[in-house]
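thread: overnight batch results

M.L. [08:02]
morning all. the overnight job finished for the chain we discussed friday. pasting input first so we're all looking at the same thing
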Amino acid sequence: MVKALVGGRPFDFSKDEIERRMRQEEPESIREHLVEVNGRSFPPKQVLATVTGWNRTTFTTMEAQRVLTRAGFTCRRNGNMALGGPAVMVPVRAGDLGRLDEIAVQAGRVGVAIDAAENASRAARQELRALLESVRDLMNDQEDQ
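M.L. [08:03]
and the structure it wrote out:
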């Protein structure tokens, strides 16, 4: 039984219970990360959302991987990593799990901040395009006069 907090909510499931709940599920397409459940590869967020009923936007992939790894599942990157090397699982001592949990929570917060910054940047670019278009329209109007 794994007891953990994910996004401030309690996660309290056993490996058997997770496997049972995922038995009838069809795996969605894998983008970057996967978890192996019942001999099949799933996106970690699909597994955590299915098991808990939580909305996927309320937790990170890293948080999902953290609790699923603690439950005894293999989580890894899909295929090769961007730098060309194969994905590697590194063994972790049990005493390091608490610190890894802290790091995962902090990394999740950083990921949320990065997402927010990317969204703000995207919105700023759209606003800039609209302003430039307005300037072009104004210049064209002045040329026509």
